[in-house]
Amino acid sequence: MTREMYDAATREWVSPDEYLNRKAARKGPSPTSPLPTPYTMPDTPEYVSPVGTGLVNGRVARREDLKRAECREVDPGEYKPTYVNKSWAKKRGFKFTEE
To answer: What does the alpha-carbon distance between residue 38 and residue 77 come to, in Å, rounded to a whole number?
Structure first.
């Protein structure tokens, strides 16, 4: 016994493959592609510079702002977190730094 589906738009019985093809054709191109696509990251929103040089709008402006202030980004390997609340650090298994 063959399996068929009713296509209400054309008012006829068709095979499941044909039904899905017609449905996709009526729907139009899919906004999401089954192919892998690169992610384009949006630019950073505008913010007030922490060094007091005004508004910074985007990555290029951020780099320029850092140059003007003679600053640079901290690499993740350079950052060593310090915890001042001994009970909080101990509870979570972090190393407590005594000053």
So the answer is: 27
